[in-house]
Design goal:
The chain is mainly alpha-helical. It contains 3 helices and no strands. The protein is elongated and about 75 Å long.
Amino acid sequence: MSDTTFAPVAAPAPAPIPVGEILPWAIFGGLLMLIVLYFVGTEEGAMALFNGMYVHEFVHDGRHLLGFPCH
């Protein structure tokens, strides 16, 4: 056996991230999520921004997975 023992060493606490650095990324992420939600949830029919059914067919399975009716 070894005579060496290991003493636990406390890790330094992580530095807090200022809100000013998080806020722009949080706003960007929120806008990105709203755009994705629009395309998955309402991109068909009268609210469509693009002609045809290409966007609808691309997100069709995602619509059903999230509970949006489309038929």
